[in-house]
Amino acid sequence: MRSKRDNLTLVSSDKNSDTVLWEKVRSGNHEALAEIFKLHYAGLFAYGIKIVPFHDFVRDHIQELFLTIWQSHDRLSSVSNIKAYLLVSLRRLMLKSRKSTPTEDLNEKGNGDFLIFEQGEFVDREVISSQIKEQLLENINALPNKHREVVFLRFYHDLSYREIAEIVEIKEQTIKNMMPGVFSKLRNGLTNIKRDDLNDLDVMLFEFFTLFKRNF
Amino acid sequence: MTNENLEKLLADQTFQNELKMFETYSDLQKREFRKKYDLTKQQFVEAKTVIDSITFKSVTFTEQELDYLWNAIGIQPKDHQQPQSQQLQSQQPQSQQSNQQHPGEQSQRSQGRNQNQQPNQNNQRRKDQQTLRRKVREINFNWFARIAAILVIPLIITSLYLYTQNVSLSRFKADKVETLGTTYNTVYAPLGGKTMVTLPDGSEVWLNSGSSLKYPLLGSDEYREVFLTGEGYFKVKKDKEVPMYVKTNDLHVKVYGTTFNVNAYDENDDVSVALIEGKVSLALASAASQSSTIGATPKTKTKTKTKTKINARKASSNNAKETFLKPGQIGQLYKDNNKLKVTTTKGLDQYIGWINDIYVFENTKFKNILKRLEKAYNVKFLIEDARLEEYSFDATFDKKSIDQIMEIFKLTLPIEWERVKSPQSKNNHFTYETIKIKRDMKRKL
Question: Which end of chain A has a smaller Cβ tally under 10 Å, C or N?
């Protein structure tokens, strides 16, 4: 018999969720604005720096974004996912002013390719050999810009394909169709993957089930 | 599984999430995972490695960025003014680290930020921003001045013309006020859907499934008044002089401009008011019964006026019975004993999530969850085993269909569910769907 309070939290529920925070900002609560700012600043910065690799440019635009939100808080519409909303707004803002700013002011390296990743940006897992890590990095950076941006939004910001579709302004179905190809490219040249951490229990489970399937 | 299928699987969001969570899984969950996907060991290791490798570090946030924002907005940061100097010191190693992630991209300016010239740099930056903004404002002003000049001349001519007409206009208005003052508009939200209404004063109201809101087309000068059945989320325009009364059968809410939710479905045992921002006061409908009828059936214009004044005085004499709510508080009126209870909650989402199709429950009995879902999705539930109704859950359903929700419950409770034929209404239309919930005898309670 289960206990009366068998509380399985099906999806984690944050106490102050996006809806509540946003509604507070809309009614002019600046502490809610601060909370949103603290929660999302790092994520916005990480994304912004990928679009225009120039620290102050990104900082100024994040400031401008929040300033605009505050100044027009009573005209804002309802938002259910603040992160996606902020990312799409920042992207538009930055791309707009990047057009109007001379490129030499922005970036000495030229701005053809953006969203290039470096090894230091990924969580370093010792169980994965450096050879494989390098291969994967190479594979990621060889992807077209748009694909790389989708990968970044999916795996850095943990957004769903639907939310990503709104940010990068392509159809959700297009993303879904292109992702198998993206993973096919990511898997290029990956051979001999060994994972010591997956060797014990998980692997036993594997052997068990393959045996099980064969018998029935 | 072929490579092509593996790539399709890798592109699947659920699969990605499950791989990311794999380390936290219990043995049972790991076994479930294995059953679900037909992977060889090598394929599993490869998939896990690919997903693991594209996990990003997060960038750290520094408190001083928030101070820039406060400066720009013009708010004095009060609570973190004091610890700020300490934080600057402790943050330095971190911020330098984050800069190291992008070697070669550091400009002179961004380096300066982390070093001693910082205060000067900040001031300089603020000044730059201010002068830039002032320039923008000047440009805007010139533009506006020109447009205004063009518009004002015809405006003067028109208003002179209208002034001469004014006398007849006001007579016309006086005639109309009488009829409009007694004319009400009612907005209904469809079963299983939601509706947003903008009231004549600019206030916004979201109505939940099957709810309705009645409001006068032309309100009085002294108060605003709306009648609610069901559930509504209110964002009332601020007006210190003219309060708004949100009236339900059992409870009246008095507001001056704020954001809150009222849940007054007739089937519920209670009426609940959740306050998000501002201040509201609650009064029992029975205590203010005289005032609730006034305004609903005024016969002539003069009578309305006097009655309203009496009404206003009565309301103030009833002050003792008013209960005030603070943001984050819930006022609940239990219909059986007419007692009003005020509680504080952190999970306001339970009350207002529905406007974004999010349903949140905290330690809520299964039967009450079903009651809420019945409304939201326009279905009826038939439960065979009453014992099931007493289980309590914490749950969040974020834009889920009713089928997805039932599947989630099936995982947690020993139940089976199916759609059954609903009774038809007179005109041979199905008005709602019926879902039957059965015990799954193979599983224990």
Answer: C
